[in-house]
Amino acid sequence: MDEEYDAIVLGTGLKECILSGMLSVSGKKVLHIDRNKYYGGESASITPLEELFSRFGAPAPDETYGRGRDWNADLIPKFLMANGSLVKLLIHTGVTRYLEFKSVEGSYVYKGGKISKVPVDQKEALASDLMGMFEKRRFRNFLIYVQDVREDDPKSWKDMDPNILTMQQVYDKFGLDKNTQDFTGHALALYRNDDYLNDKALTTIRRIKLYSDSLARYGKSPYLYPMYGLGELPQGFARLSAIYGGTYMLDKPIDEIVVENGHVVGVKSGEEIARCKQVYCDPSYIPSRVNKTAQVVRCICLMDHPVPNTRDALSTQIIIPQKQVGRKSDIYVSLVSYTHQVAAKGWFIAMVSTTVETDNPEAEIKPGLELLGPIRQKFVSVSDFFQPTDDGVSSQIFISKSFDATTHFETTCDDVLDIFRRGTGEDFDFSKVKHDLGEEEP
């Protein structure tokens, strides 16, 4: 450890592994250290099943669960948007050569106590049971407008400039009711609250286009999930970093992040100090430089059947918009199964999560749990959500945010790309990657 590095990355959570890969690809000399013996940090995949039970203090699983080693349970499962930032990163950086993905079979939204498929094109809009006949026509016209918008062609805006109008004004122009606005904003554009209504419409239009473009790639839903769970992702980026000269050390204690004159100069482990110009890490490595801003409740549910009313989908995402259940935060439900090699044959793993708003977090996820049908075993956890107290530019210590309650990766990618921008002063340049795989299917 007596060399000097451009960057030291602490922790092998997914965000840190992605950053390590991006920094290495960009020509930086990177040392990557984790105090744990395993990859993944708080977003690790747990195998065998017995370890998951013991982690939550439950008695060992009986033989009905099949072989323990057939299970790979993600502590924080998230789906990838097929055309989203993370898949683009995976493709452009070549990480797809280490991974195999499967499309998620259904995308649903909750309204009035039941779930319905999220409509994303004119045909689905007209068939949807989320709206009455006249509202369907209005929504269809809105979708046509969104699909026709070209940012560089004012004629395509149809006298509704998305750079000037707010999203609320665009909804109003089409006469869309509050329910339609609700599922559009939360299940298509994937906003977590309604603040976006007062922002410029262009951002939301981009997000709806991302959803429908992602859907167009594989047909059943816009989401993908890696075979064998998310634990493969950090290792894929770790291999990428190693190809570009990155050095990895697992099971290495971190005793101190050394700062001189307000600027990081190295990382100390025992008697050794590795010197560096920058440090990238998760919040657990520098508690003094992060604030707890929220809590997230998550419930892992093991089931021997798919979610009712999803046409027996073997994988699905359901979003419960906040207003439907009188909350400030959406509730997210995800389901994966043995078809992703994360459970024994015939078994399913669901996750219900939301941002905590009361002193009874488990009661807050009840609307999501009620959609699942009989649950064989559940594991509830409440974790703190931390974010850095500053942007890290003066100290050159760049800290990621904790994982939020969403069951998709878009907010994770936003954080990673933002940290990279702060740390390097520039956006990640995909063209620097030597083995660009083009638009290879993940």
Descriptive key words:
442 residues, alpha/beta, FAD/NAD(P)-binding domain, Guanine Nucleotide Dissociation Inhibitor, domain 2, Guanine Nucleotide Dissociation Inhibitor, domain 1, 3 domains, 7-stranded mixed beta sheet, 28% helix, globular
How would you explain this protein's 3D organization?
The protein is of the alpha/beta class and 442 residues long. The chain has 3 domains: 143 residues, FAD/NAD(P)-binding domain (3-Layer(bba) Sandwich), CATH 3.50.50.60; 153 residues, Guanine Nucleotide Dissociation Inhibitor, domain 2; 101 residues, Guanine Nucleotide Dissociation Inhibitor, domain 1 (Orthogonal Bundle), CATH 1.10.405.10. 28% of the residues lie in helices and 24% in strands. It contains 12 helices and 19 strands. Strands 1, 2, 10, 11, 12, 13 and 19 form a 7-stranded mixed β-sheet that branches. Strand 11 and strand 12 form a beta hairpin.
Describe the protein's topology.
Layout: E1 4-10, H1 14-25, E2 30-33, E3 45-46, H2 49-55, E4 73-74, E5 80-81, H3 85-93, E6 101-103, E7 106-111, E8 114-117, H4 122-127, H5 133-148, H6 167-174, H7 178-188, H8 201-218, E9 223-226, H9 232-243, E10 247-249, E11 256-260, E12 263-269, E13 272-281, E14 290-303, E15 316-320, E16 331-337, E17 348-355, H10 361-364, H11 366-369, E18 377-388, E19 397-399, H12 410-424
